[in-house]
Amino acid sequence: MNHTIQYLQSDAAEQGIETGVLVNCLILDSIQAGASDIHIEPWESTLAVRIRLNGVLTELVHLPLDVMEKLSGRFKVMANLISYQTGLPQEGHASTGPEMGGVELRISVFPTTRGEKIVIRLFDPSNRSFDMPSLGFDEETLKTLTHLLARPSGLLLLTGPTGSGKTTAIYSALYHIVQRNGPAVSISTVEDPVEFNLPMISQAQINPAQDFTYPKALRSLMRQDPQVIMVGEIRDPETATIAVQAGLTGHLVISTIHSGIAAGVYARLINMDIEPFLLASSIIAVLGIRLIRKNCTFCTQPYQPEPGLLRYVPDEMLPQIEFKRGVGCPECLHTGFKGRSAVTELLVADEVFRDAVLQKLPTRALQEVAIKQGMRTMWTSGMKRVVAGQTTLEEILRVITVDQL
Questions:
Q1: Rounded Cα–Cα distance for residues 269 and 227 (Å)
Q2: What CA–CA distance (Å, rounded) separates 272 from 270?
């Protein structure tokens, strides 16, 4: 991961930095490192370039501030944006050539007081697998989820913060349905934006500027005779209402919604004025998902966490844990972590849980009912990864907030 530094130190760069070459070096370094995003941001005295590796920002290189306008101009040209406009945010897409693996770039330019900040999201088709077993779900969750995807109707919701793997999980679920049913199933999606084109699936991208919104798209979609509908995100009461109705009228609906824990989804939807009896009837399961960084297998060593952190570990687990972490090596770019895996909690709505929803119990009480019915919480799933030496206690605490334990 040194094309950028090599170029900056070369004779060619001393004679004047060629913006196109520099941009190519930055993108190539980021792709080879396995980054998901590039952040180019003017700081006090440098133009900082950071990349997001396994969900965490890492410094790549610092450039002179005087190349900022040239870099910004280059990215705007690549994404067909207005190159002379600097005071307003702009967004666009660009594709790289075969020498960079055909990686898709989603480019966002945002004006700040020091100049324009550029964020490039990288979509690497060769690095994306929509095979469900490759998601890193534990065996029990994978088995239950596969069983749920065979249901003819109902609402399956995924919840988690931005960048927690929800889209990849949904695409994998749709891919699984296509593999299982082939051309005998009709699947339609409404997304914002469409991140990958999936085989044998009709994908639509909403366009609020032309009044093509989630509710409008969903209403029209209901007349397209789909069996499976994927809604990118439930953001408003209207979308929620249509999604619930579709789940009740013989469609399998898969969507995402923001909530801290799986049981919290019900309160979120009730706040959108959806009646509890409709939720109890339509929602078949809620999957909470987070991505944790995995210890680098090349440099993992035993270690002892700070004593203050041990209070979060269940007493019965303490004797059996040998805490492990990566100390950093060239293989993991000296981060101690290599790759990510999903940690989940799968709340399956059985009869007992549906009765609790009908009684309008608060989120904490719903979670307790779900646990009694066999749900393994996100925290428990995370601690199992720590016990297995796959990740660190600190990483679990970084991803799963303490009030969700």
A1: 23
A2: 5
Domains annotated on the chain, with CATH: 3-124 (3.30.450.90), 128-404 (3.40.50.300)
CA 257 to chain centre: 12
Secondary structure (DSSP) of 77-95: HHTT--TT--SS-EEEEEE
Q: How do 56-63 and 47-53 pair as beta strands? A: antiparallel
Instruction: State the average pLDDT over residues 101-123.
Output: 93
User: 196: Cβ–Cβ under 8 A, 6 or more apart, which residues?
Assistant: 123, 125, 128, 130, 171
Alpha helices (runs of H) in 249-362, residue ranges in sequence order:
264-270, 276-282, 351-358
| Consecutive H or E run containing 239 | helix 237-248
Distance CA 348, CA 146 (A): 12
d(CA 51, CA 44): 19
Measured distance CA(269)–CA(252) in Å, rounded: 18
Q: What is the DSSP letter of 100?
A: G
Task: Provide mean pLDDT across the span 41-70.
Answer: 93
CB of 292 within 8 A of CB of 399?
A: yes
> How many other C-beta atoms are found inside a 10 Å radius of the C-beta of residue 341?
18
The one-letter amino acid at 180? R
Instruction: Indicate yes or no: pTM above 0.85.
Output: yes
Give the residue ranges of DSSP H helices in 272-346: 276-282
Asked whether the beta carbons of 295 and 389 are under 8 A apart, the reply is: yes
Q: What is the pLDDT of residues 178-207, one digit of tens each?
A: 999 999 999 999 998 888 888 899 999 999
